[in-house]
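Researcher: Next entry in the queue.
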Amino acid sequence: MLYRLLLSCLLIACLKTDAQLVWNTQSQHAGESMPCGGGDIGLNVWVEKGDLLFYLSRSGTFDENNAMLKLGRVRIRVEGRPFDKGDFTQELHLQDGSVIVSGGGVRIVLWVDVFHPVVHVSMESKTAVRMSAVYESWRYEDHVITDAVECRANSYKVLQPFPVTTYKDTVSFVENRVQFYHRNRDDKEDIFDYTVRMEGMSAVKDQLYNPIRHNTFGGIMQGKGMVAGDRTAGQYADTKYRGWELRTSRPVKSQEITIGLHVAQTNTSKEWEEGLRALIKEPGPVSVETSMESSLERRRSIKWWKQFWTRSYIHIDSKDAAVRTIGRNYELFRYQLACNAYGEWPTKFNGGLFTFDPCYVDSSKHFSPDFRAWGGGTMTAQNQRLVYFPMLKNGDGDMLKAQFDFYLRILHNASLRSRVYWNHGGACFTEQIENFGLPNVTEYHPKRPAGTDPGVEYNKWLEYEWETVFEFCLMMLDEQRYDGVNLQKYLPFIDSCLSFYDAHYHKFDAQGHYIFYPTSAAETYKLTYNSTTVIAAMQTILQRLILVAPDPKWDTMLAHLPPIPLGEYEGHTTILPAEKWDRIQNRETPQLYPVFPWGIYGIGKHGLDTAINTYKYDPQAVAQWDYTGWKQYSIFAARLGLTADAAKLSGWKFKDGPHRFSTFWGPGFDWTPDHNWGGSAMIGVQEMLLQTDDRKIYLLPAWPGEWDVSFKLHAPYKTTVEAVVKGGKVVSLKVNPKEREKDVIYPGRGD
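Model: Structure for this entry, 751 residues:
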């Protein structure tokens, strides 16, 4: 117990010191903001010209166009401009999920209730001061999108023959509160209606799950003793806004503001308002005690954050500051992911909850803070999976639920696609899939030539790319293996994904193997014959199912699988991306997917030399070697035991991003903050420290001997591994449960 406590204290101390989470100067703009959040709410917090500002974001805020809209901006202003006094600090407290801003005798604490969607702002002052909070909205009028690039923030992606409009919100003073919300209209065709019509699914429209209709999101801002003030107006960055002010009725030494946020599909706006009011308590008397540590809500949230940080950690000690940065940024990014721990919707790969004005990402993009490239309700599978895979070893299995539930909700719609287009069973999930389970309408291509297979996107990157859903099947199986969850909830989903391939490719060669043609190997190798990504995925999943949910049909499918294609470069046997392919379209390396995620090749497994040859000699694999964005070469190198490459790539992956907050990476190939950049980086470091093969646990399989480290990670079968490594030697090891220690293999142990 003492050992664990010391390590936990060491972690918190290192995060606070090494991470440089205290800023002593104000920010220049929103691009220099700091994340704060909890539950499924994210705030971008910064102080600019004496004002404390923060953006409000929450999971599920999809409008008529399937853009993921922010819920507004709040501006806090304290009389006398205390943050300009010269003793300013802004600090992120990872251990309790709060941001504290202080200066000039004033201290403001921001935190989000993990268990209720409420933002808390608590002010304390040495002298009585007046304070105001202004809710600012840029959606005070309808906005017709006229720039084709701006359309990339929604599911139309491009300008249409009809106006694409972001409709205005409803904002008003209600009894000395500010109430604001956006309610999706139903008097015009929205993105769901348009997609269903253009993709030939109208006959089953009334059977389709629809998360867009009547989606309503917004909130209410209030403070005890605060009254409605002025209406304001201005422009921030490229966007005009209007404001609704609450202000204290007299000078005060303490003040608390709460902002409740509600997202729901309701039949009427009144029904939504009733749901909002149920979230919000009447503001009570304010004091330091009631507004902070002593409140039940605050204590519960602090407890959650403390147990979150004891689930797992990685602290790296080195004379090299760049190496220490890996451990620091690992934890900072994990914090960003935790801010959507309990969202109904998955953390978005293209910014999560922490996007900001796009001009601070790309000076050519002059759009509102709602903008993000690659859409709001579009869930791109190959990007999303990199955000969620690292949660397994971090022990954050409860955070996988949002991503799993996303697929369970759209299973019916994906199954209807197969029935409507091909009249067979199984669910067909595409790569760029909407939150209602149909392909993105522009990637499907409304102007497709007559006679085109109606179930295939007319898109040279995405055609026949249906296998990417298998990685989420693997995560479900892994979650069962790691945490012992009941797999029954997920078996129908996994079954349907496999059944689609069995039904769609139910032709066999002379050896009795499936003929997987046409298929795709990620977005890169197109019109493939026997794609390696398809074969490797089905092989791994079927083998796992046979162990945990035996059924003769799994054995039959497995027997019909062709072998993974092999080839040769410069006399070296290598893995091929497919037996044959028509063209190369993108920059992925699917020939190494049997290494990650499928784990067919790797340390301690047959054919490791073949996988290493592929990494080293396949000219396409060599050409794509990189660390940017979703590139996963640090993962490949770690799984192959290539320590030098894994270390180099992880160092590059985890170096500070271009913004003031160091893990706001991007835009990479996507947007900022690039969450699949961070996710792939996390996986690489995890695999350097700990790899598993069923019950085997490989410790330090690709860890540099000169990097001292203390860590706690999770392994299958409800196992945790805690170790302290100095000078390349394991000086302390704790495995829980203890009987699993016999399964640990590491250098110097003699295994």
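Model: Residues 221 and 259 are 4 Å apart (CA to CA).
Researcher: Noted, moving on.
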